[in-house]
Amino acid sequence: MLDCEQYACDALCATFDWSPSAIISINGQIPVDYLLGTAQDTDTQYSDPDAIYNKIFTTIFGDGSFTSDIHNLGFSQDQTIFVFTNGTTISIDNKATSTAFANVDSGSALFNKIDLPAPGGPTAESPDAAPLAISELAGFPEALSKSPDGTTAAYILPDSNVGVLSFSAMDNEDDSQTQVINDLLDACEIAGCTKLIIDLQHNGGGKVFAGMSAFQQLFPGTTPLLAQRYRDTPMGEYLGKVWTTVSQLDPSNIEKAHMYDALSAVNENGESFSNYTEFITPQTIWGDNFTAITRRHFNPITPSRTERMFASEDMVILFDGSCGSTCTIFAQALKSQGGVRSVAVGGRPQTGPMQGVAGSEGSWVLGYGALKAEISELPTAEALFKANDLEFPSIEDVPSQYRIVTIDPPLGKSLDTRGRVNIPTGRYLRWD
Predict the structure, then answer these.
(1) How many domains does the chain fold into?
(2) Does 56 fall in a domain?
(3) InterPro entries annotated for this entry (predicted)?
(4) Tens digits of residue pLDDT in 64-114
């Protein structure tokens, strides 16, 4: 272990006429051992120890997990005892509070208390993680351009030839992300900047196409590779047959991008599938069946520049381990297609490699609710079949255990998104 010190944030951040003392033990343990051990037992976001360790501490992005969810499962003793290098000892009582459960005196009362869905229409599925908006970051220079929600900001480091693009999320709903990137490129050209830092600290994701468009602005003329597979199930095959036929009968349906529609996607080489069978023929991976690798039709943006501003060797990605979801897609494109190198900061106080991407990796988030939405559209598809004198496939041909129904689950609509069928599958992220 490296000789690093931990401090209480209140002591380190306050202004006193004395120097703060480092913490030398917490509940009799070395601080690193106590913090990491406790966090690993309770963290549900990361599996990587360096990312978990970074998450513990208060940073410019906000409070760390030590002051929030690290104690969700309770405490091992009545007090938390801190010992400092100056000999000071502080004991803090551990207390738990209970949620008000007045009038909850039966199973039905409990159900009504916590599981009734909110009134109103269906909620749209988010394609990715919710973005974290950040207004001003301590230690950063004044932004030369910033999106209204603060998720994208551009800087030029003082007295340098280095530009910085800081993404706390990938969000381009109103084209503001595109504008910020253009503003930086224009400013860097005027200032003669030759280096670029792409800051992805604390970036948990965002909108997939926002990540793709950001890559295209930095690498004009290069189409980002966004590939995925779907699980090949009897229900998936049924939907695929229906929606692929619908797209053959009405090509305008392709734009709706139904997930098992072979015509709304292309193969890994960017070519159309010759037929439905080519798309759906099962490919077995670790005992599970999947479709062929597919890529969605991606309408590329028209970058304001036709030439790259920065060479790959003059760009670097800055990670802190928290990169996840769309952030990983953006980072992978920068790395594999752009040849951009990366640096990861923080982590456990030890030498050795650290993983920059420790969040969930994958493609578009498609919840159970998205499948239900496709089921609800089947009557429209059936009408098109009948209009063309075609027999509509019967959903009864799908084995009952694989059928998806549109009625609400027994514990409320929230289970559409909170059900996690892949929890027992273990680690699926490779070391990167």
Answers:
(1) 2
(2) yes
(3) ClpP/crotonase-like_dom_sf (IPR029045), PDZ_CPAF-rel (IPR056186), S41A_metabolite_peptidase (IPR052766), Tail-specific_protease (IPR005151)
(4) 677 666 666 677 788 889 999 988 899 989 887 777 777 888 888 877 776
Domain membership flag for residue 71: yes
Handedness of CA 368, 371, 373, 378 (dihedral sign): negative
| Domain of residue 280, residue span | 227-297+377-407
CA distance linking residue 264 with residue 228, whole number of Å = 13
Q: Which run of H or of E encompasses 202?
A: none
CA distances from 68 to 62, 64, 109, 120, 171 (A): 11, 7, 29, 32, 27
Query: Sign of the C-alpha dihedral, residues 374, 378, 380, 384?
Result: positive
Q: What is the pLDDT of residues 266-284, one digit of tens each?
A: 888 888 887 888 888 878 8
DSSP codes, 217-276:
HHSTT-----EE--B--HHHHHHHHHHHHHHHH-GGGGGG--TT-GGGEEETTSPBPSSH
pLDDT tens, 343-395?
A: 999 888 888 889 888 887 766 667 777 888 888 899 999 999 999 999 999 99
Distances (CA, A) of 293 to 57, 181, 277, 371: 40, 31, 13, 19
pTM, two decimal places = 0.76
Could you tell me if residue 156 is inside a domain? no
Q: What is the predicted pLDDT for the residue at 69?
A: 67
Q: Tell me if 226 sits within 8 A of 265, measured CB to CB.
A: no
CA distances from 428 to 113, 133, 229, 360 (A): 36, 29, 15, 9
Specify the DSSP element, H or E, that contains 341: strand 341-344
In order of 96, 347, 399, the CA distances from 78 in angstroms are 10, 29, 54
CA distances from 39 to 62, 82, 195, 335, 352 (A): 17, 17, 37, 30, 21
Look up residue 239 and give its two tokens: 């939907």
Quick check: is 121 in a domain? no
**How many angstroms separate the CA atoms of 404 and 413, rounded?**
14
And the tokens for 221?
Answer: 């003329």
Phi, psi of 420 (to 5 degrees): -125, 95
Longest dimension (CA), the chain: 87
> For residues 263 and 242, what is the distance between their CA atoms, to the nearest angstrom?
12
Asked if 22 and 84 touch (Cβ cutoff 8 Å), the reply is: yes
Mark which of 67, 93, 119 sits at the end of a domain: 93
Cα(118)–Cα(123) distance, integer angstroms: 10
